[in-house]
């Protein structure tokens, strides 16, 4: 049943959702953090020649490809021969936010809008999904059309429907299968 939700209106299979760590997201994140890093370099009396800016971008790409933690990124850059300091770490602190924002935009514009992705299930529908290697059943209590995700309420996980507490798991719509409710 999982594949049932993955058909596009044109009957073509839906391409996979872009990953938060895919190369496209990482390149766009590098572009966002590059300017403050170049300013930091200039203030440190180092101006890379134009040809070296591509090398700087490559170093940053490699350093952030699988890390969002500013300290780890700085250590990765040090491994590439950089001299980092607290100011650089402060700049690198923005990588996780840039990556999150970039990924959200890419999913929306290059996946949801481009392919006409629409979560097909509704509030109150029962679904099954994989959670930590185990199939769980829960109820959709919110549809996030802008990210193609559902909030799924699972009382067995201590979720609450109102008040303070966790209301549900936020799961990609394509990872959910409808569950027939027997009456």
What does this structure look like?
- The chain has 183 residues and is an alpha+beta fold.
- It folds into two domains: 23-114, no CATH class; 126-178.
- The chain has five helices and five strands, in the order H-H-H-H-H-E-E-E-E-E.
- It has helices at residues 23-43, 50-64, 70-79, 86-92, 95-115, and strands at 126-131, 134-144, 149-153, 169-172, 177-178.
- Strand 1 (126-131) and strand 2 form a beta hairpin.
- Helix 1 (23-43) packs antiparallel against helix 4 (86-92), helix 2 packs across helix 3 and helix 3 crosses helix 4.
- It is elongated and about 75 Å long.
- Mean pLDDT is 91; it is low at 1-9.
Overall pLDDT score:
91
The main sheet comes to: 5 strands, antiparallel
- Helical content band: 40-55%
Shape category: elongated
- Strand segment tally: 5
List keywords for this structure.
40% helix; 183 residues; 5 strands; alpha+beta; disordered N terminus; single chain; elongated
In short:
The protein is of the alpha+beta class and 183 residues long.
Set down the secondary structure blueprint.
Blueprint: H1 23-43, H2 50-64, H3 70-79, H4 86-92, H5 95-115, E1 126-131, E2 134-144, E3 149-153, E4 169-172, E5 177-178
Antiparallel strand pairs: 1-2, 1-5, 2-3, 3-4
Helix pairs in contact: 1-2, 1-4, 1-5, 2-3, 3-4
């Amino acid at each position: 049943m999982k594949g049932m939700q993955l058909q596009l209106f044109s009957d073509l299979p839906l391409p996979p959702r872009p990953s938060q760590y895919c190369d496209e997201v990482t390149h766009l994140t590098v572009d966002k953090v590059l300017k403050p890093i170049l300013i930091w370099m200039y203030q440190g009396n180092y101006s890379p020649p134009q040809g070296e800016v591509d090398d700087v971008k490559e170093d940053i790409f490699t350093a952030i490809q699988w890390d969002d933690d500013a300290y780890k990124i700085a250590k990765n850059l040090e491994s590439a021969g950089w001299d980092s300091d607290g100011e650089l770490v402060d700049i690198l602190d923005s990588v996780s936010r840039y990556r999150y924002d970039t990924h959200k935009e890419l999913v929306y514009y290059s996946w949801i809008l481009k392919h006409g992705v629409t979560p097909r299930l509704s509030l109150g529908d029962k679904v099954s999904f994989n959670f930590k290697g185990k199939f769980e059943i829960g109820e959709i209590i919110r549809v996030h059309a802008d990210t193609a995700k559902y909030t799924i309420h699972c009382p067995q996980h201590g979720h609450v429907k109102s008040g303070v507490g966790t209301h549900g798991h936020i799961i990609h719509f394509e990872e959910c299968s409808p569950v027939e409710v027997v009456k």
